[in-house]
Design brief:
Layout lengths: L1 E5 L10 H10 L4 E8 L4 H8 L5 H5 L2 E8 L4 H14 L3 E5 L11 H7 L4 E3 L6 H9 L3 E5 L8 H11 L3 E4 L11 H10 L4 H9 L7
Parallel strand pairs: 1-2, 2-3, 3-4, 4-5, 5-6, 6-7
Helix pairs in contact: 2-4, 6-7, 8-9
């Protein structure tokens, strides 16, 4: 299992980073991205704190990515924050996309794709034109297991398949029960409408993993 969108007590999750990593190990995870919610008020604290769990990668045999999820930031300020995240040491930058179940700023999807973030999370009713641009800019579009956000998984899978944009299956974990194993991830990918061979590839490979 490769899961590049999770949260800890550093934002709105319920686990400290080391417990999240340990529980992910027990689910058979190969890699995990810890991507707590950030804006300009907490980004330094979040990245510096998550970085302290990074040494567990070699000790526990699970690849840990230090990341952030830029959340409810006006599109006009998003590029500045994404650049700051990278300068501070973020390995993965996720943007909280235009899910239909939250009041996300219009234009968030487009701006995130234009600036070339790593993952656009739960992008809701992303347009075919935005998906085409995501392919061009190597932005991964997320299929999510998280309730609420996942109501548009089928739409995301369809437009991504038509454009050739990369897909990832993530959990958006906030609590221990949100973690899933690879077979559940496969079921989510299939449930979104992906063909079996595509679903298997999406859940077992990632552009962020070396092998």
């Amino acid at each position: 299992m490769i899961d590049l969108h999770t949260h800890t007590i550093l934002s709105d999750g319920s686990l400290i980073p080391s417990e999240l990593v340990r529980r992910a190990m027990m689910k058979g995870y190969r890699a995990i991205g810890i991507t707590d919610h950030v804006d300009f008020t907490n980004i330094e604290f979040v990245i510096s704190t998550i970085s302290r769990v990074k040494p567990l990668s070699d000790l526990l045999g699970i690849e840990i990515f230090v990341g952030v999820e830029i959340t409810h930031v006006p599109p006009e300020r998003m590029e500045t924050l994404a650049n700051l995240a990278h300068r501070l040491g973020a390995e993965i930058v996720v943007v909280h996309g235009e899910t239909p179940v939250e009041p996300v700023y219009p234009g968030t999807n487009r701006k995130a794709i234009e600036i070339g973030v790593d993952i656009l999370a739960h992008p809701g009713f992303i347009t075919p034109e935005e998906a085409d641009l995501a392919k061009e800019n190597s932005v991964c579009l997320e299929i999510t297991s998280r309730a609420g956000h996942n109501i548009t998984n089928g739409h995301v899978a369809r437009v991504a398949s038509e454009s050739g944009a990369s897909l990832v299956v993530n959990t958006d974990t906030h609590d221990p029960e949100d973690l899933i194993d690879i077979e559940r991830a496969f079921q989510i990918a299939m449930g979104a409408g992906l063909r079996e061979e595509v679903a298997r590839r999406v859940v077992s490979k990632s552009p962020f993993i070396r092998a």
